[in-house]
Amino acid sequence: MPYHHGDLRRALLAAGLSLLEKRGPAQVSLREVARVAGVSHNAPYRHFDSREALLAALAADGFEALGVAMEQAAEGRTGFERLRALGIAYIAFARAQPAVYLLMFGPELVKDPFPALKAVAERSFEVLRQAIETIVPVETRRAAVIGAWALVHGLSHLIADHQFPPDFAEEDKLDALIEDVLAIYRQGLARGAEPH
Predict the structure, then answer these.
(1) What is the pLDDT along the chain (196 residues), one digit of tens a residue?
(2) Do 70 and 167 sit in the same domain of this protein?
(3) Domain harbouring 126, CATH code
(4) Torsion angle of C-alpha atoms 152, 156, 158, 159, degrees rounded to 10
(5) Dihedral sign, Cα of residue 129, residue 133, residue 136, residue 140
(6) Using the 8-state DSSP alphabet, how is residue 170 labeled?
(7) Other C-beta atoms within 10 Å of 162: how many?
(8) Measured distance CA(90)–CA(80) in Å, rounded
(9) Which of 53, 174, 60 lies closest to 124, judged by CA?
(10) Which domain holds residue 9?
C-alpha cells in the first residue's frame, strides 16, 4: 500500500519487511523500499542513511518481538518449565517469521555499527541466561546457556531455512520432534544439576 501521509519511517519499514519476506535481504534496497512505499527515491534517507541501517532497524524490530515473546512465554513459570517455554517461544518466532529470523542472525548484517540493534539482540540471550541460572550449578552455567541457545537457535535456523528432511518437516511431526529434542536437553541439564 503506497504511503500518503503520516509516519514515513513506519511505512518504509513495512515496505522493507514486505521485500525481505518476498525476496530476501539481498534484494532490499532503499530505492526499492521507496518504490514499494510509494515515496520519492530520496525519502528513505530522512530516516536511514544506508541500506544497512534499514536492515538493522528491521532486525531490531525482530529482536524486540522475539524478546517480548520470550518474556511473555516465561511469565509465571519457573525452573525447567520456564526453560521449555522460552525454547518453544524462540522456535515459534523463527517459524512465524523466517525471513526476519534469518536476517537477525545472518551474514547480511553486522551488528557492531548499530548499538541499538546490539542492545536489543542481547535481550533474548539475557532472558535465557537468567532462566538457566535458576536451575544449573554455577560451575556449569556458561556451558548450559550456550548449549540451550545453540539448541534452539540450531532448530530455528534449520526450520527457517527449510533444511529439515521432508519426513520431519510436517507440522505434527515437527512439533513432536521439537518437544522431544527440548526434553532430552532438559533431562541432561537436570542430571547435571544433581549433586555428585
Answers:
(1) 455 556 999 999 999 999 999 999 988 999 999 999 999 999 999 999 999 999 999 999 999 999 999 999 999 999 999 999 999 999 999 999 999 999 999 998 899 999 999 999 998 889 999 999 999 999 999 999 999 999 999 999 999 998 888 777 777 788 888 999 999 988 888 876 665 4
(2) yes
(3) 1.10.357.10
(4) 140
(5) positive
(6) S
(7) 8
(8) 15
(9) 60
(10) 1-49
Residue 84 and residue 182: Cα distance in Å, rounded? 7
Residue type, 121: A
Same domain, 175 and 81: yes
Long-range pairs for 179-188 at CB < 8 Å and ≥24 separation? 181/151, 181/155, 182/84, 182/87, 182/88, 182/151, 182/152, 183/84, 185/147, 185/148, 185/151, 186/80, 186/83, 186/84
Cell numbers 544497512 correspond to 52
Maximum alpha-carbon separation in the chain: 67
DSSP conformation class of 38: T
CB neighbourhood size of 148 (10 A)? 23
Strands of 99-148 (E only): list them: none
What stretches of 13-55 adopt beta strand conformation (E)? none
